[in-house]
Amino acid sequence: MLSQSLQQKLQLKQKLSPLQIQTIKLLELPALELDQRVRKELEENPVLETKSNEDETENNELSLSEYYGEDDSIPSYKLYVNHQSKDTKREFPTFSVKESFRQNLEAQLGFRTLSDRERKIALFVIGSLDDDGYLRREIETLRDDMAFRLGMEVQADEIENALSVIQEFDPPGVGARDLQECLLIQIRIKKSKPSVNLALTILENHFEEFTKKHYEKIISRLGITEDDLKEAINEILKLNPRPGGNVDDSYTDRAQQVVPDFILDLKDGELVLTLPRFSVPELRINRRYAEILLKAADQSTRESKEAATFVKQKLDSAKWFIEALRQRQNTLLNTMKAILEFQEEYFEEGDESKLKPMVLKNIAEKTGLDISTISRVVNSKYIQTHFGIYSLKYFFSEGLVTESGEEVSTREIKNILVESVNAEDKRKPLTDEELVGCLNERGYKVARRTVAKYREQLNLPIARLRKEI
Hints:
This protein is of the alpha+beta class. It has helices spanning 18-27, 31-44, 101-109, 116-127, 139-149, 156-166, 179-188, 194-205, 207-211, 215-222, 226-237, 287-297, 302-342, 344-349, 360-367, 371-378, 410-423, 432-441, 448-457, and strands at residues 48-50, 80-81, 95-96, 257-258, 262-267, 270-274, 283-285, 382-385, 388-391, 399-401, 407-409. A hairpin with a 2-residue loop joins strand 5 and strand 6.
């Protein structure tokens, strides 16, 4: 006997409105990118226009209720938005991210006499370098990629030749395939002297012993004194293990200028938060195109209906864009105010020890916004304070509890770890267990595995690798 059953599933799917989608996209943009986005919208949407200072009358603003009925699904609101703070005369500082090392290498490549084929291969190799300046991809993999992407059948020796050219560029060590090659490239261009020559020998023939700090083996095998070894190691320590430079993960390879999204001042003991003045203009609906829609609505020809549809679409888009800008501004301010309230004691003085443990959820609860929204606000945003310019991400960290029951930021724990390692006897570096003891003495209850995790996050080697002679 066959049994049949009918199952009915009810699925609720949330569909984002165009306004919500627009707001989400704008929330993610820092100040300068927002400026570019607004200008792009002005270029692409003829219905949008800037509002000039002398044109302030309500008569020049457009009420879309003339075109959309009272029961229109889009809420009504004033169709312009002001992105500037009241203090319009105030200037703001900017700081720039230096030219990326890939751009620098491409510029140096321009001064070399190469065939078009050689130049294409070299440019591809430059584009394959990691952010720290290393080539960690196999030559055969590069050959396959060039065949696929460039349509070029390239021999391994051609790639090797291009790499040799790149390895002659500044900064020295760029294009190396591992740390040993990176350091060798740099030491070989140094002026010859006993300590440099010994450093070259160590890097060429005793690199494994050197990285493991088996100094006694090196002294024995080379028949040198401890002072000789110390001088050679000092030469090696002057070399750069990351020739690509300290590339900030929050930036792409193009040079960028950063404008703070918030300005925080301390006036008469009170924290005052403002949005900086920048070049995003006030926006409003262009009345002329609205009149086209009105006239077109009174006609019945196919062309007039198409024109009316086009203008209506542009009016919708402009209306959503203006409101999305308004919502972005309100969301940014509400989020930053919540952060200030949470970290008020810290922001008064900029004392890092007063920075409380804070995660996205804390601010989401204070503002009533989703964690994903807070994440978008925090990402790539900066605040100028009376003690420096900071990324909003800087203020977020997890927490630990001291023996007295007080919650402290993990950043405070990490600072103590750095202090302890800096103050240790380098002949007998502190083990993770001993670092736990240092923290316990100061009232912090931390497990050894936690210390190991924080040490790794701080790029601090294990005790054996911190040993010096």
